[in-house]
What we know:
alpha+beta; 5 strands; globular
Amino acid sequence: MPEVSRFFGIVIKIFCEEHPPPHFHAEYGEYEALIAIHTLTVIEGNLPSRPLGMVIEWASEHRRELEELWTRAIHHQPMYKIPPLR
């Protein structure tokens, strides 16, 4: 289950066969960006500014959970959902 959250048409995923640095995927329509968990910067791809702002806001509120899910993913442990941005 790579999907860990969904809000306002944005899908957040973490995959188990990932590469450093710790990151998550944010998808919005045809756009996709990889966001570094520790710095909350885009390391690859892009999103429109408004969805990107929402993703950064959400990630800043859930950084610890994202770090834990990254660790779980790379160790093939069960994942869980993170509450959406409200």
